[in-house]
Recover the amino acids of this structure.
């Protein structure tokens, strides 16, 4: 009997030790998981690899206000577009800009200033067959874009103040989703490109249209595409 009692005590002691070891292991795993989570939340967002194509000084278009049922859809769209245009740069188009945003579009850096001279625009709106996005719209507006040459090194781009002035028309794409007008992309076609020399702007290109596309409408391209299309 005595032997059996000893064996039972040994088993109980062993089980208590195992429970303690398992509890300590759970605490250790929890602490490790917390440390990994903190590392992910603090370090990775600042890493270029995870930032993707975000520019160093990006400004997303302001989100449209919620549109109550029964409201004038076109009027709501115009208010959204006007809000976006008001948020653009307000500088003179007669001289090169002094304070330009530094943009990063992998693997290049460049400076950019966008100006909408008259804030007037044309709207084309249509109904769709989609239940989640019942309306779509295209907005065209005159635009002047100041841009420097693309550089692979940030320091070179920051030191570059030689701007080209491109005058053309920007096409903005909108879709109505979750009760709001949302900007889903844009396309800028430069009809005239000039450089500042001798105190005045002089043409540097002829019979050439440069296209800048952003967002979903341009075959899912995110960020900035610089392509050259001859003719029109």
């Amino acid at each position: 009997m005595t032997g059996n009692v000893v064996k039972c005590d040994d088993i109980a002691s062993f089980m208590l030790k195992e429970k303690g070891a398992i509890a300590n292991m759970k605490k250790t795993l929890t602490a490790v998981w917390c440390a990994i989570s903190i590392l992910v939340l603090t370090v990775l967002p600042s890493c270029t690899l995870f930032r993707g194509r975000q520019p160093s000084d990006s400004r997303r278009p302001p989100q449209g206000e919620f549109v109550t049922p029964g409201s004038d859809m076109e009027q709501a769209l115009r208010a959204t577009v006007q809000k976006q245009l008001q948020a653009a740069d307000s500088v003179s188009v007669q001289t090169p800009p002094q304070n330009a945003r530094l943009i990063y579009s992998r693997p290049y850096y460049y400076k950019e200033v966008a100006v909408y001279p008259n804030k007037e625009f044309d709207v084309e709106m249509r109904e769709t067959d989609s239940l989640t996005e019942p309306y779509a719209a295209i907005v065209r507006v005159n635009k002047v874009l100041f841009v420097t040459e693309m550089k692979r090194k940030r320091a070179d781009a920051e030191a570059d103040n030689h701007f080209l002035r491109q005058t053309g028309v920007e096409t903005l794409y909108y879709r109505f989703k979750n009760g709001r007008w949302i900007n889903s992309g844009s396309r800028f076609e430069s009809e005239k490109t000039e450089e500042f020399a001798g105190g005045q702007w002089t043409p540097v290109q002829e019979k050439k249209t440069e296209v800048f596309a952003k967002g979903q409408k341009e075959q899912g391209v995110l960020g900035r595409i610089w392509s050259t299309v001859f003719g029109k």
Observations:
- The longest strand covers residues 180-197.
